[in-house]
């Protein structure tokens, strides 16, 4: 056989642990099979087939492996038919331990079940069944906790589940449970997590804690990068540079030097909080001509953005304050871990009682058998069982090693023994994309580094030769990842030693197809009344290219469209292509319960169980089972007059119609329908559920009817899947149709994923649409990698709790009194790590997608012109960590290629609206063909409309209640309860004198936005304004000067007008008091509230006793010691002497604010002011409130 040099080494090297890093299409399975065959046939030290342990990622891979090694040995036997040893090995290979790790664990457990004290007849639970058991367990945990009444639990509930139910708590407990199961010793991890949290809550060792060290080192690294860029920039600055800019650079240098010299958190925080970088100086025309002007300006902006980010996101408070927060969180964390541990106990007991376990249990049972104990460092020590197995297996193979988790790695370690066996692992860390299953690519990298640094530990071999893809695909892939992937970002230096190369003799070696980039320019359709959604525009681009490829000689079955996620994208894309005549097949993970056939069948089962359910009954009657029309259902209901009609069900109406009805055809329908239904109601007591369901399929003909519908094959498979669910359900502890219906409703309500049944796509000539994860291990002649503009998912980062293997648990810091929250220091550290891991995995997902192509690789996306230009100007080094989508990586990497059209391996096309307009024009014409007028003339006019008239003449008996809503904002109540102010915030006051036309550059103040927008901007500025820090008017002037940099929207308001308004606010008698209170930390800004008020306060004409919910945000309040002071900002344009208009307008609003504030802070509000920016003064509101309250 012809092997590459690296393949030969992997196959024939002996006496060493070997790690094979096999790139995409490098023939790793062939290497595995050949090594096993050579070991079996080794002349000096043969290893018999039953002394192998081979662990694969899937059952299909295990079956393929066993088949291929069997075929290899049989081919050798044909050449040596008298070889009895070889015949013996062929028999043994059929019984060899070649399986998934779960199958290995299953066999091990059933062999040693007596050591685990479990019933050996256990089974793996069905997903929905296990879900229900988890629900039972978590409900029991919470019931116990509520019954205990312990303070720590009640505080935990108040902080993280303030709503009306415990759904959030249940999800939090289950999330932590699932995460903890990825550790061999979960109790050890919980203990380590608690210790780390305790360090953050105390003073000793705080600066050396993992979280603080991580955040500080990241900030210092960023500062060092800025420092390096600054030194490079200073080298370019000549003596004739404008002094103001050289001074600015010197200021930045000193500031950054102070940060890089800070050795601990508080030192770094002190520099950030006490110093700042000046605004960029205004430039004269001559200064703008300086060669480095734009570069210095961009650098200055970058530095300020970086510093502000550190201030706002990491260094938000001194260490002492963070320690106090951590102490509060520590108590909640202990409660959280205790709840999760109790859940684990109860859930296990539930499973044990039913003798049902999950795949995680298999791994942990195996650990229990193989691990004797854990030492102080947490390292596992092998048991006697493990030692015996290590003697049995002479060679251990692990396929797809990059997807191993820590539990599986521990199992593997327990089986390894230098004296008895060696390890052969195969994988590609560049294709590790299963982090959501707790896969740990770092385990792969750690073992690889160990083999490279320690010769006696093992040997690392790189398989780079790709025998799958055309040179154009490999060149494109290498070009992107050579600039994107590196040791610090992805764990691998993607260079000439690791990049893919065409394998000699490969079938695609001489292929000359080019790769392509197809982008739709989104703003080219901006002039349209209705711009098509991104997914439809991208579908049109793909559709156009598919039709061209068909003309070039390709077949539909050659093509696949890969998506990062199918949710919300797969179905619209498939529908679009099908409407254009392109046959499509796709696997969807969701939507099973929404399919017509499953909805109808579940409804039928519901009425078989309970015949008096009207909604399911109507659904079935209108389906092909009942064959009733809507008009016939109306005829049934009008047999009984209102109001008695509501007491009857559809079943009652059908029986009544059989007695009193006049239409024989309708009677026959009812007779046939009820005959079947009553028959099945009798059979449900006598037949097993699966038999009953199949009987319903056949007797009603529904199983055959759905096959005549569009997508009939898939609909049939969906019904068969439901039948399989019924068979699985019968194996559970739950029995009967009632519980099955309840079981299916719970699966539907909790959105357990049961994707629609898919048909076999391999042999069909259709375009396949699938997720990138689904495509792993497959290959296709033409691959569209689509949705490059789709944003990465950051939702997980916003969860109340985040977990990390090394850092532990990071929780949100919640103030239950004021109802505000922010990430704790530990959570910030975990967010950094999780986001880094997310970006690295997204990059690996892109790599997997691109390496699926054999002949042609096509990347597609939707982008705006400005985004395209900005992306091509960006640096890939900066974009690696800032990327929000795959597009953010592609653009800077490919910028040079877009401009160089001579590349023979790449073609780039930018589509505009005119290129795809034809697809949407045809759709519009089709929709317009069935007009409203046509519908009215054809189906409505001339028909009996008495029932419709009767329905529309109905008078609602509770009209009074329709005059108010259940929830109001304060702004809505303001407009309802008071007169309209002539010059309120939404109206700009007109001057008495005729406005003079003055050129823009001579205007003293800028043209401003409208009143409402102006009010919004002013409120934001007042929220940002540091009352306590501004002691002089010079400081206020400097702060407003810098404002445009920190809040660009502020430039829409005159700086002079703003300065005068804030100056009068801060340096008035009331302002002085507020600044002093702010210094003491007793001022709160933008305080949200929700309060219940009687509806009579809003609508004085009603006698109803209802309560409405009022929501709003209080601008500012100050705790004056024995009472509260409330301030509300107003930007309405009014004149001196018109203060009463403000009081009339906002009196009730302030009453709501007063009631809310007193309820939230439990203290009396004695001072209330409106601050008018127009009048530049405080207006007391006490008198008007007294009169309102009196009324």
Please explain how this structure is put together.
The protein has 1191 residues and is an alpha/beta fold. The protein folds into 6 domains: 5-101 and 382-463, P-loop containing nucleotide triphosphate hydrolases (Rossmann fold); 127-182 and 322-354, Enzyme I, Chain A, domain 2 (Orthogonal Bundle); 206-316; 515-589 and 763-919, 3-Layer(aba) Sandwich (Rossmann fold), CATH 3.40.50; 592-750, PCRA, domain 4; 968-980 and 1008-1180, Lambda Exonuclease, Chain A. 53% of the residues lie in helices and 13% in strands. It is built from 48 helices and 28 strands. The strands form 7 sheets. A 7-stranded parallel sheet has the order 15-16-14-17-21-13-22, sandwiched between helices. A 6-stranded parallel sheet has the order 3-2-8-9-1-10. A hairpin with a 4-residue loop joins strand 19 (808-815) and strand 20 (820-823). Helix 21 (471-484) packs across helix 37 (887-899). The chain is globular and about 115 Å long. This is DNA 3'-5' helicase. It catalyses: Couples ATP hydrolysis with the unwinding of duplex DNA by translocating in the 3'-5' direction; ATP + H2O = ADP + phosphate + H(+).
